[in-house]
């Protein structure tokens, strides 16, 4: 287009890419000058050019008229092109000329967690109908937002809050050096003896002396009280479920352990004892010990040695005192230095008395049964009466489940009790990460296995979670912002064409959907009780198609337009026979925070409370004029078909709720696939938007195509700048201007995937601010890293990670910005 430029010669073209056309044919001064020149030529007698003269004043007035007409002519010309139009109505009509409708925005989405009444006597179940309204508690300067459930929920009390098991079966085996015992009143102390035996195999047992005893009381997570005991050397024991643990409460000695040294006794005493030994044995040891006494060395009392007690079927032993707590059926262990321990079962226990080795004492006479003493190496232990220690008075202790402390990871969650959750149902996981940060996410259940005690999620958990803090919310249903309204639109007239009805309420709710635009409205129209369908345009409709189109006006009102009998059916005549049901509420104001949706407008029977564990997301404002200039031309590049990499990016960017898209071909073995990384206008893309986008791509894309779709991976970074302001400038004003310039440079809307951040661009941006004499970086690093000033921060595109899984593209996002003022 060749048009005159004000102040220049005619025919100067408008260069491509200009934000506005130069289309004025004249200005006030140019019109007045040309008019005066023409009057001077035709009326030479009119020599004055002063506007005080009536003739000149008339020319000046018409010059003003021409200036105004030229101005509006230029404005009309600008409104005729998408790039230069400024009026929203112009942009809307130009976009409609190529089949593009301005995006009306989208309603926010949230997941609601219902709590079923679980008090004694309550039914324990409840039905939450689809469309149940829940209202938010508004904050300062906010208005309450209404959300409605999108599906019916069969809620049960056992799904209110499902916790991960904090304890599991305790396996005792080779190498075990600690045990968890039930209760905290075991009475054990460090140094006490413990007998660990396999009830199914008498020859399998272990004896240990406790090193530590730690009582563990119950806690708010429901952990029962336990006692943890440990010892120095691990067990040499095969794993078994029939392990018995016994505390040996008594530590005693054998009668005679404190006898005087035989070698210090007078000769007469020794001769008398030897003679007595030759006549028979003592009452304590019987014939076997009498035989031993006859061959005893001269350095020890006759019958003093304790030989291998297994040589006698039921050996008898006397302890050095009366121990009434020793009962038949209990266990006893003999220990001596350098001798392998021996385990016996007490068959009979009697109070007795003994007189030998110059000693007289009340004793406990025990008849023992040897068990579990198979050594397998032929070693026959010899117990010394003085050094032998008797551990007896056994008390069986109950094993407790071991505490499970490993963090929860992966996509398989093992539960402590069976649940009746179903595959495909949403599940909210709330917890604290192993780093101490709060975590909440929504997952879909892929499968329920192991008779309901194991759940497989649709994807692995994003972080390792602290087991005690994990809470699974099972009574979850999706909800979208908006409040249902029923309205009589009016009466049909079979003689009229293109009947129009404007909805009474503004902000017709649009929700995410697998369509090319990414949304669909919630309007349902019935004529004489028959539901008519919505169409994007009347043009392809036939004369009998019961359809209508919806047009959203600039004031957020929605108009329903019916056909003319050729392009869409006319409305049948009737009295108030056109009715509409729809929802109202749209935009970012619906993106309420977590825990805000807690007011039940209509409380279903059996429901105690409701909450949104995660913040609502996905609420977007109506499309801006600047966005239409970018998006509308893209539709004629793809025509809703998705084949090439560019097609995928264009299709995604035209999808409501998507602002950035990057398509990449990844080449794992055995077959490459296409991966699409996307971002919302202000951050991560909600799951429901991703689901709708994937469905739309599968509908309009190539059949059989492998597609990966993920929201971007955020790389937060910190930037610090020190500036030296000019002496004649206010330091605060200059630092504020620098901060604004850097915030604009690194704003989310201006960043792209895999776009690096350089120190040079940051310094150059600060240096260009008026009033800045010098600038220097004090920090440029990824958030969380040690203090450093990097020259370059890199972000990577989509790639294959460990195990061949796709990793989305990275986006560097400014999270912390500081501007310091240098004094010199």
Features:
46 strands; 16% helix; 824 residues; Elongation Factor Tu (Ef-tu), domain 3; CHP02243; elongated; seven-stranded mixed β-sheet; Baseplate assembly protein; eight-stranded antiparallel β-sheet; alpha+beta; 10 helices
Radius of gyration: 45 Å
Number of strands: 46
What proportion of the residues form beta strands (DSSP E)? 25-35%
Unreliable stretches (pLDDT < 50, length at least 5) are 1-9, 279-297, 374-379
Give the N-to-C terminal Cα separation.
Answer: 55 Å
Helix proportion range: 10-25%
Q: Which geometry do the CA atoms define?
A: elongated
Mean pLDDT: 87
Q: How many domains make up the 3D coordinates?
A: 8
Strand order of the largest sheet: 10-9-13-18-15-16-17-14
Tally of helical runs: 10
Find the structural class using helix and strand composition. alpha+beta
Tell me the major beta sheet: 8 strands, antiparallel
């Amino acid at each position: 287009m060749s048009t005159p430029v004000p102040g220049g010669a005619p025919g100067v073209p408008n260069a491509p890419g200009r934000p506005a056309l130069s289309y004025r044919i004249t200005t006030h001064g140019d019109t007045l000058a040309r008019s005066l020149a023409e009057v001077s030529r035709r009326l030479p007698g009119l020599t004055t050019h002063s506007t005080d003269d009536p003739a000149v004043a008339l020319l000046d007035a018409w010059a003003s008229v021409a200036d105004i007409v030229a101005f509006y002519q230029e404005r009309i010309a600008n409104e005729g092109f998408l790039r230069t139009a400024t009026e929203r109505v112009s942009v809307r009509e130009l976009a409609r000329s190529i089949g593009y409708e301005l995006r009306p925005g989208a309603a926010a989405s949230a997941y609601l967690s219902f709590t079923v009444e679980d008090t004694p006597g309550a039914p324990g179940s409840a039905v939450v109908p689809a469309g149940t309204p829940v209202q938010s508690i508004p904050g300062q300067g906010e208005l309450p937002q209404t959300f409605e459930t999108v599906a019916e929920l069969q809620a049960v009390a056992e799904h209110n809050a499902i916790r991960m098991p904090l304890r599991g079966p305790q396996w005792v085996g080779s190498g075990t050096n600690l045990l968890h015992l039930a209760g905290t009143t075991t009475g054990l102390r460090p140094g006490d003896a413990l007998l660990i035996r396999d009830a199914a195999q008498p020859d399998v047992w272990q004896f240990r002396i406790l090193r530590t005893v730690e009582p563990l009381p119950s806690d708010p997570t429901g952990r029962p009280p336990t006692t943890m005991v440990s010892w120095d050397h691990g067990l040499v024991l095969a794993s078994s479920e029939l392990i018995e643990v016994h505390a040996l409460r008594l530590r005693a000695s054998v009668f005679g352990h404190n006898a005087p040294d035989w070698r210090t006794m007078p000769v007469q005493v020794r001769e008398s004892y030897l003679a007595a030994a030759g006549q028979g044995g003592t009452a304590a040891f019987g014939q076997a010990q009498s035989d031993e006494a006859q061959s005893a060395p001269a350095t020890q009392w006759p019958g003093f040695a304790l030989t291998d007690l297994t040589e006698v079927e039921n050996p008898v032993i006397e302890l050095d005192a009366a121990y009434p707590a020793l009962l038949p059926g209990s266990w006893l262990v003999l220990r001596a230095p350098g001798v392998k321990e021996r385990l016996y079962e007490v068959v009979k226990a009697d109070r007795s008395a003994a007189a030998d080795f110059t000693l007289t004492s009340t004793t406990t006479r025990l008849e023992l049964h040897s068990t579990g003493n198979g050594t397998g190496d032929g070693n026959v232990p010899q117990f010394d009466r003085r050094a032998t220690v008797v551990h007896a008075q056994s008390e069986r202790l109950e094993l407790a489940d071991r505490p499970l402390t490993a963090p929860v990871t992966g996509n398989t969650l093992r539960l402590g009790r069976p649940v009746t959750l179903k595959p495909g149902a949403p599940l909210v996981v709330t917890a604290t990460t192993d780093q101490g940060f709060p975590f909440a996410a929504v997952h879909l259940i892929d499968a329920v296995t192991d008779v309901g005690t194991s759940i497989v999620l649709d994807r692995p958990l994003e972080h390792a979670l602290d087991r005690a803090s994990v809470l699974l919310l099972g009574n979850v249903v999706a909800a979208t912002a908006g409040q249902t309204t029923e309205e009589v639109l009016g009466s049909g007239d079979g003689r009229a064409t293109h009947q129009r009805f404007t909805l009474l309420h503004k902000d017709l709710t649009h929700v995410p959907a697998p369509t090319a635009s990414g949304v669909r409205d919630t309007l349902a129209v019935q004529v004489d009780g028959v539901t008519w369908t919505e169409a994007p345009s009347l043009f392809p409709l036939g004369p009998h198609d019961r359809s209508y189109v919806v047009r959203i006006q600039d004031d957020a009102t929605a108009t329903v337009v019916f056909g003319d009998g050729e392009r869409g059916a006319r409305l049948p005549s009737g009295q108030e026979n056109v009715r509409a049901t729809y929802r109202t509420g749209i935009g970012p104001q619906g993106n309420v925070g977590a825990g805000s949706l807690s007011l039940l407008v209509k409380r279903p029977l059996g429901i105690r409370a409701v909450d949104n564990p995660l913040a609502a997301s996905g609420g977007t404002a109506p499309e801006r004029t600047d966005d239409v200039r970018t998006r509308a031309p893209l539709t004629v590049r793809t025509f809703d078909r998705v084949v090439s990499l560019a097609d995928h990016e264009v299709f995604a960017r035209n999808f409501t709720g998507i602002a950035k898209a990057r398509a990449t071909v990844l080449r794992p073995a055995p077959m490459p696939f296409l991966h699409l990384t996307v971002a919302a206008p202000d951050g991560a893309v909600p799951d429901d938007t991703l689901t709708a986008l994937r469905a739309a791509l599968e509908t309009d894309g190539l059949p059989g195509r492998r597609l990966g779709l993920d929201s971007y991976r955020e790389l937060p970074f910190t930037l610090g700048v020190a500036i030296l302001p000019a002496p004649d400038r206010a330091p605060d004003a200059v630092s504020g201007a620098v901060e604004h310039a850097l915030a604009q440079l690194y704003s989310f809307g201006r960043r792209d995937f895999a776009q690096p951040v350089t120190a040079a661009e940051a310094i150059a941006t600060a240096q260009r601010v008026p009033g800045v004499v010098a600038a220097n970086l004090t920090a440029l690093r990824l958030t969380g890293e040690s203090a450093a000033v990097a020259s370059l921060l890199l972000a990577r595109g989509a790639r294959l990670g460990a195990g061949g899984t796709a990793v989305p593209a990275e986006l560097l996002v400014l999270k912390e910005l500081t501007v310091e003022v240098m004094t010199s």
